[in-house]
Amino acid sequence: MAKGSRLAEILRNYEADLLEDWLREQRASGTLRPELLSETELRAQSREFLNAMQQAAQGGNLTDITTPEWKNTRDLLARISSIRASLGFSPAETATFVMSLKQPLFTRLGKEMDGQNLEGLLGEIWTVTTLLDKLGLYTTEVFIESREQIIARQHEDLIELSTPVIQVWKGILAVPLVGTLDSARTQVVMENLLQEIVNTASDIAIIDITGVPTVDTLVAQHLLKTVAAARLMGADCIISGVRPQIAQTIVQLGAEFTGIRTKATLAGALALALRDLGLTIQ
Amino acid sequence: MTPPGNERVPIQSEDDIVRARRIARTYAQELGIGLTNQTKLVTAVSELARNVYVHGGGGTMQIEIVSNRGNQGIRLTFEDHGPGIPDINLAMQDGYTTGNGLGLGLGGAKRLVHEFEIESWVGRGTRVTIVMWA
Ligand SMILES: Nc1ncnc2c1ncn2[C@@H]1O[C@H](COP(=O)(O)OP(=O)(O)OP(=O)(O)O)[C@@H](O)[C@H]1O
Ligand SMILES: [Mg+2]
What we know:
The complex is a heterodimer. Chain A is α/β, with parallel strands linked by helices. Chain A is built from eleven helices and five strands. In chain A, helix 9 (217-232) links the parallel strand 3 (204-211) and strand 4 (236-240). Chain B is built from four helices and five strands, in the order βααββααββ. A five-stranded antiparallel β-sheet of chain B has the order 1-2-3-5-4, covered by helices on one side. The complex binds adenosine-5'-triphosphate and magnesium ion.
């Protein structure tokens, strides 16, 4: 059925007409979002897609879009899809871009095959509809993938943002930790802190755990490692914000913060740090 | 919100460990368990849930409200179908680890709660039950 398809021929012969019909269809579909995508861009994307499809269809394979001759089309759709994802289109809107080509193509097929057998026309329509469905679904897959990438990147940004290293005094850094300390965050905290110790040539780093709800053996281990690494960079650490119930818990857990100075409050830690540096606040 | 008396939550990811902690805290608050014991219970949950996830390859935490002579408590059962523990006495020792932890999770959890029980079958899995009374 696909073998004898006239799709490639129609795409070639009516390129300009199809483009206009399709654009009209897209405008009518209500998923155009002119505020997000200009008419010029839409026209360019549509023309490129028709071209790519025409070239791929020439090979005669209209059923399997994973083959090499469809690579250009796939790449183009992937590009369009991730552009639209970042512009704020929904996956359905992007899939509709592809699916809305059905109507103009069916009309054209109908005209071309006028007088021929109905069976042949139905066969063509079936071929084209399944092909466009596959291409439409492909945009959705890519869309979801690029969304996930965006979310992952935002997640990383958030991690960075939520663990700022502050220089509270010349020679003194503070990192207020807030929230759940999973391994990924602890890694970022540790790297940021060590980097800032170098950048600011600090002698003392205060790690404040007031905002950490649970200090278990994993968090304890992360803290111990961070302190050890800071020491190697020549800086001494003070852990502050050790609330009474956390202190009791740490003791019963058996985690030993031997050799690490701890304070109940950030203010207490700061006073201690200033004293270390021979400074006093007047 | 009054939590239902019996609930089983999956432990299959880091996020599930955080969720298990949050659920345990909610129950403890509902029972009127004080802040220090809440913190201890939640920390024990963190240890045992992490053991289920890391050593047991995932499993579940079951929550029950129990009572004894008018006193209410929360009983949590951690279960997995992982490799099991060949020598429980050894595993309970502080500092003993087959991974790269501090080896304090089991011993620490036992010290943090009122009741602690561990059963394990090599090749079949591990079950740890803890109780914290209000
Ligand atoms: N659910 C389990 N299934 C199989 N083995 C376990 C399980 N829980 C604990 N173990 C074994 O017991 C050992 C001690 O556990 P424990 O929690 O005390 O320390 P850890 O998990 O190695 O380190 P951490 O101090 O971070 O908890 C583990 O290293 C592991 O070999
Ligand atoms: Mg452990």
